[in-house]
Amino acid sequence: MIDLAAIVSQVRQGMIPAHVYADPEIFAAERDRLFARSWVFLAHESEIPDPGDYVVRRVLADSFIVARDEAGVIRVMFNMCLHRGMQVCRAELGNASHFRCPYHAWTYRNDGRLAGVPFHAEAYGGEDGFARAGQSLLPAPSMATHNGLIFISGDPDAQPLAGYLGDFTYYLDFYTRQSPAGVELRGPQRWRIKANWKIGAENFAGDSYHTPHTHASVVDIGLFREPKASQRIKGALYTAGPGSGTTYKLPPGGDFADQLRYVGYPDAMIGGMAAAWSDRQRALVAGSGFMVSAATLFPNLSFVHNWPQVDAAGTVVPFISLRQWQPVSERETEVLSWFAVDAAAPEDFKRQSYRAYLMCFGSSGMFEQDDVENWVSITDMAAGSMARRLNLNSRMGLTSEGKPLKPPIADFAGPGLAYQGFGEYGQRHWLSQWGDHLSRDAR
Amino acid sequence: MTAARPLRYGDPAHLDAHQFLVEEAALLDAADYAGWLELLCEDIRYVMPVRVTTARGAGFDSLPDMAHFDEDMYALRKRVQRLATDHAWTEDPPSRTRHFVTNVRTFRAAPGELRVESALLLFRSRGDTREADLLSAGRADLLRETADGLRLARREITVDESVLRTQNLAVFL
């Protein structure tokens, strides 16, 4: 039996018992205490634009149909037939007015309501024996959207999503609201890695320290020059609400449009950002001079924004990716990686940005390849008995008394706390929330 | 899928195409990526769509706007350059790979071009503790006759899984 309280206590001091990255008991606790309750991302509204469109997504072992019903309302339904428990929809996407169970042909409207039961009169004696009215596929206990991002929670009394997102909402807009038209997602690419799900989430939450070394090769080949250590160390690391992330320092002196041009945005899009973002959001780019890069929204949705060179002429084009670390087991994770782009962007930009994404991130991305090699290896090492004797040091940026090595950036435009330079602020912020969940009772 | 009949196995054009694919596989298994690039036309398109599970009547089984690879020569050169650096950790130590190429069918295309379909099974082994990975795919290639012999002008890789069971695509198919 593991001592969860002792593990969480260690984690809160920035020392991580290494076995948590490959421990089936920890995984069970995460399932029952964290994923049973936390807001978890499922899909984006742009993936199901028309009535009847649906995608099927999981939260651990639970399969959900995420559908737009005939009235245009987004529905999230547990994908299990009320009668014998068959998976009602076995495709991963499509368009359907109804879902019919393959077993006995119970049929549900795309809003989840039971529409048909074969031989209802003969077999059940009609409504008296089995009242169809009010029968529906189980809805997700809580469901809410923000910027078109669809989240669910297993807790029917979950804190409202807007309150949960809190100060991270400010940062979310840089990835998912670059114009009033919002963002559109393409994909996802899906692949399985033999790595614990927490490692990717923590990496994106604030690990700017790995970039110069892990990603040295993409600097070597001139694909993306910013990750070199001398540049990366100037970035700000922020923690805000349930999220945290990394930024790059922009060249000094540029105004709002200059900075966005520097990372490759065409003027046609800069107007959209000026219209969609608040004064305070614009000030992060123009005043503080930081551009968002990687981020994680607790527990398992991450974001990335980079601006590589996409051709031999040196054209710089930015891209955005959303990615989810979907736990399969304590030693395996399914990665879902989407390309995201402003819905109002010019078609040529969308095409170029998509190419930039494919070169850098996703299943074949030249950044992501080296990340995953590290994460698989960590998980492998964490599975043995020696790992139970080792606490991994996640205290970068703290003194021996646990105080920050330096003060936060005083004039940082964004909410939360931000520090310049390397430090594991974001990872500890993420782990602190993980500890909060694991300290609660199982649902 | 094609209405035309494939060339007979004894046809010299088929034999040339088949030999091209086998020689290409040998270069990839030897990690001779610079040599592999020389087999590609400058206007290459190298595409591997994301396959998806859909209902039989849906009319599609890959995403129209998302791929695992969607490459031109610039992108492929960058990938090869990266693997040649001292910092491409995911392939250092390198994977042991074997590209099994089979079910080769050759069709006449435009003058000077052959369309070649093949089945590929890629075995990939890393380290000494991990299970090996398998990737199964169909390939539809366009081979162009040049002064230096056949060259690859287009490849579409139809992977047979919707969720890949390999840690990344730091390999070519």
Strand content of chain A: 25-35%
CATH H-level superfamily title of the largest domain in chain A = Naphthalene 1,2-dioxygenase Alpha Subunit, Chain A, domain 1
Shape of chain A: globular
Number of strands of chain B: 6
- Greatest interface (CB-CB under 8 A), with counts per chain: A-B, 47 and 41 residues
CATH architecture of the largest domain in chain A: Alpha-Beta Complex
Oligomeric grouping of the chains = heterodimer
| Sheet with most strands of chain A | 8 strands, antiparallel
Q: Which class do the helix and strand fractions of chain B yield?
A: alpha+beta
Distance between the termini of chain B: 20 Å
Query: How large is the share of residues in beta strands of chain B?
Result: 35-45%
Described by the principal axes of the CA atoms, the overall outline of chain B is globular
- Runs of chain B in which pLDDT lies below 50 for 5 or more consecutive residues are none
User: What number is the mean pLDDT of chain B?
Assistant: 96
Order of secondary-structure elements of chain B: HHEEHEEEE
Widest beta sheet: strand line-up of chain B = 2-1-6-5-4-3
* Mean pLDDT rating of chain A: 96
